[in-house]
Write a structure and sequence with these properties.
eight-stranded mixed β-sheet, globular, four-stranded antiparallel β-sheet, alpha/beta, 12 strands
């Protein structure tokens, strides 16, 4: 990626949670590794997807980017500057988040006008009249009537609430929106409407997205690049066309083969066998080897590096046999 176009970059980010000692009388301390040594960057105007099964660390990394979770180790850059106290103050306006559940993401006691204007009020941006005017502009941009400003969240459907949450994220004119499974709580008929809205807003406002999802069909219609996570590790990073056309990591291949297709019967040997191991006791070597049909001895002992696939310099995979 061109460094001049870099908006946000994560460099060897790890996030661990200390769960305390096991057993009533103490014992070995339990540490949950939610993300391990993850590096990727997002360019201005780009949409990068984070995909993987539940428990893969997607939301944890999204929270790190949004400033809601502090990493245990590693660094984050914003427009080329290391994220410190001063940079974080700037990034607080430039990086916003849209949460998964539109029903719990909005304060039921606040009218929509106050909900949308809340980021502006917290950051001391504009007068009360200016904030209300901004809320009026945004509520129309997300496809709701102006009279929605005086109503409360319980008066709206799930899709409408998600539109309100998107308007709130847009209020401080961010450069990046972290969208954490923004469609998963919505009906399928509504998902496409929100997806189209996000694409329109990206073009209008020049937004970048970090789009967190388990739905590869959605990802294929929205994003520029895809980062695949497994048990807290980045196992593949590639442009959308290359990842969907020629996936390199066995886990990515299994994920794509697991996507239902009309008129196509899923082949048993292409489903992902077994269950994801516990992040409290990750496997040695390649973390995917207990479920991988291609695993050999080296996979059980040596951790593969994330490296370019042969002849595909933009496609990276962490697999001993990616080529």
């Amino acid at each position: 990626m061109n460094a001049a176009a870099e908006l946000v970059a994560l460099d060897r980010i790890s996030v661990q949670f200390d769960l305390g000692s096991s057993g009533f009388f103490g014992g070995k301390r339990r540490v949950l590794s939610a993300a391990h040594d993850v590096s990727f960057a997002i360019a201005e105007g780009e949409t990068l997807a984070l995909v993987g099964e539940s428990g893969s660390g997607k939301s944890t990394l999204g929270n790190v980017v949004a400033g809601l979770q502090k990493q245990t180790s590693g660094t984050m850059r914003f427009r080329g500057l290391a994220m410190d106290a001063a940079t974080r103050a700037t990034a607080r306006r430039s990086i916003q988040i849209v949460f998964q559940d539109p029903f719990s993401a909005l304060d039921p006691r606040m009218p929509v006008s106050d909900i949308i204007a809340e980021p502006l009020r917290i950051q001391g941006i504009g007068s009360a009249a200016e904030r209300r005017a901004r809320a009026g502009e945004l509520v129309e941009q997300v496809g709701l009537p102006r009279d929605a400003l005086n109503r409360y969240p319980h008066e709206f459907s799930g899709g409408q609430r998600q539109r309100i949450a998107i308007a709130r994220a847009l209020a401080p004119a961010p450069a990046l929106i972290v969208a954490d499974e923004p469609l998963s709580a919505l009906d399928v008929s509504i998902q496409s409407q929100i997806l189209n809205l996000m694409k329109e807003l990206q073009e209008t406002h020049g937004l970048s997205y970090l789009f967190i999802s388990h739905d590869l069909a959605v990802v294929n219609h929205l994003v520029d690049r895809v980062a695949v996570l497994y048990l807290g590790r980045l196992v593949e990073l590639a442009p959308r066309e290359e990842l969907f056309g020629r996936p390199s990591h066995p886990y990515t291949q299994a994920l794509l083969e697991s996507v239902p297709r009309i008129g196509v019967r899923r082949r048993r040997h292409h489903t992902i066998r077994g269950e994801m191991p516990s992040p409290l006791a990750p496997p040695s070597g390649c973390v995917f080897h207990p479920r991988c049909p291609k695993a050999q001895g080296v996979c059980r002992t040596d951790v593969p590096e994330l490296a370019p696939a042969a002849g595909r310099p933009a496609q990276f995979a962490a697999c001993h046999f990616k080529d």
